[in-house]
Amino acid sequence: MSLEPRADARAPDARALEARAPWAVDPRQSRGRLHPEPADARSPWQRDRDRIIHTGAFRRLQYKTQVFIFHEGDYFRTRLTHSIEVAQIARSLARRLRLDEDLAEALALAHDLGHPPFGHAGEEALDSQMRPYGGFDHNAQSLKVVTQLEGRYAAFNGLNLSWETLEGLAKHNGPLRRPSAFIAEYDRQHPLDLATHASAEAQVAALADDIAYNNHDLDDGVRARILTLEDVADLPLVGDAYREVLATHPGIARDRLVTETVRRVINAMIQDVVDEAGRRIAALDPRNADDIRAASEPVIAFSRPMAEANQVIREFLFTRMYRHWRVNRVMQKSKRVSQLLFQLLHGGPQMLPDDWRERAGEAGSPTCARVVCDYIAGMTDRYALEEHRRLTDPNIPG
Known about the structure:
- Residues 79-214 form the HD domain.
- By secondary structure, the protein is mainly α.
- The protein has helices spanning 14-19, 44-53, 56-60, 79-96, 101-110, 119-130, 138-149, 163-171, 181-189, 200-223, 229-232, 238-248, 254-284, 289-294, 304-322, 325-347, 354-360, 366-377, 381-392.
- α4 crosses α10 and α12 (238-248) packs across α13 (254-284).
């Protein structure tokens, strides 16, 4: 695929280019879009970001679970607030590392578009039902949303995002040696160089997700009183920040203590990534973005001590929060809702809305399974619960 600038790769402000590192993606060298489009005053990734924000899939993240189902309280994070927080961290990292902030932000905003309702419980339910048909993976579903399922434009399906944004969505967690069926299928039509790393901007978005996920789940867990301050005070990094806040602000209110502790942990993680990335980039000495892609390891990463501390936090959250009986009860019920929705609609596609029913074809077929899976994956928590009631309660009109 040509590296020559396409029609929509208009050069940005000269000062913005000067601020970028040589290994940052260069909007003048974008590999373009599957369907060429006329030039625009924005950079390719500003344009991608704007398209992502205007999608129905992005709006629906407001009512998709992060950990707590939507009706448990307005304060807890959803997929939408999580995505915005990831975007903020990604922009901060990109700016300090002299990368393209707009590409990092676009990837952060799009990374969860493929998540089904009910968080990981919903994903596990769909994956189990789809196992005979290739399984379900939210990363692949995110790519499918932006390349097929969003129907907003007259000339093409999806959003027709730039190659660099699609590459970052497909492999922000590293090279794909064994891609999912959909990603492999898409790659045959529009090659994304799956065997290499993604850009530094995509790596930033992936690590920003890790930083936001763990810290904000700690915050929500304490506020939900599933975790206690004494629990988190024993964690590496978190405990140090907790004790620093108490020493600096004796008598601080509980809510402010939680917020200040989490803020300091996020800042420490960001600084660690900046320092470690600086060391790795200096050792690699890349001349352009393709040198980053061809590297033997990611250039955006935690240092070893920080990675170990982060893993301890992750394991703590898994055992003490994600497997807490209150969360388990809700997740098990949610999983059954997703499974039953799939079974009913796969066996009876005539119950699907008209546009979905036309695509589903014969009941029980692989095509029907994939269409039903796409339909359920696009639901919000509350829509899935309402659809479950409509399909199972004879007293509720269809």
